[in-house]
Amino acid sequence: MRRTFAALAVGLLTALPAGAASAAPTQAPGCDVVTAELTWGFKESFRAYIDGSIANGEWTVADGATYDTPDFGFPAESGRVDPRQPNGSIAFAGSVRFTGHGGILDTTVARPVVVIHPDGTGVLLLDVSGPTMEGDQVSVVEAEFLDIDLTGQNLTPVDGVIRIDAAPTTLTSDGAVAFPNYEAGTAFDPITVVADVGDCDLTGQPIGTDTTGDTDTAGEAGMPWLLPAIGVAAVAVGALVVALIVTRRRRP
Length: 252
Ligand code: HEM
Fold this sequence. Notes:
Blueprint: H1 2-15, E1 31-32, E2 35-40, H2 44-50, E3 58-62, E4 66-68, E5 71-82, E6 87-92, E7 95-100, E8 105-116, E9 121-131, E10 137-149, E11 161-171, H3 173-178, E12 187-196, H4 226-250
Antiparallel strand pairs: 1-5, 2-5, 2-12, 3-7, 4-5, 5-6, 6-8, 7-8, 8-9, 9-10, 10-11, 11-12
Bound molecules: protoporphyrin IX containing FE.
């Protein structure tokens, strides 16, 4: 009887899929951004043109953006990054309004978003509005404005901080439509991102799958059958223990 009980108990437990014994919920690997800043000069030659003798203009920052020569600063609104793939995005607040030529030039760029793709490429999305040099009116939201070259960037958090240091950028084809004075491929100023991710724990399931279910996790979302299976096993083991005790008591 004892051998039967032991074999049955072992059988029940081993019948449970791997990972069932360590069913503690795991934290998703993506890091929520606590605070972050995007530092970016937009385009040095454009700034020189604006505040030089041709455009006789200026720029003004709003909605949280700052300017400290030669860079604009944009504070993060929200963001989530998985440094291991890497993968994610950080959205920033703030706007910069460039004016010149007595008001004929009046372009506002706002709300940049840094997107990091798993293939190692990056994109900067941007809202752009205002008249072009040809007099057409542009108004785009979250346009893919710049390609970001992330080659050599290590996105592993150091002391809770993820850094993208002076990553080179070039104008995309959509960017050239939104800002038509430059051709696609034109170099813009490099971007620097400093993102505080606190004490983010990188174990668990991939970014974006924590609420939809994932096979890498032992959490409820990934293995909905797990808790019922453990319950059934516990009841079966309990019944066997009772049976064992009753059998022993009946022995002469
Ligand atoms: C009265 C109207 C305008 C005049 C007379 C004018 C004139 C000029 C001139 C002479 C340049 C060449 C600057 C240089 O090579 O150093 C230039 C460049 C440029 N203009 Fe205008 N412009 C006008 C309106 C606009 C408008 C509405 C925009 C829209 C954003 C614009 C955007 C640009 C840009 C992006 C450059 C290139 C700056 C650079 O990176 O060197 N301009 N403009």
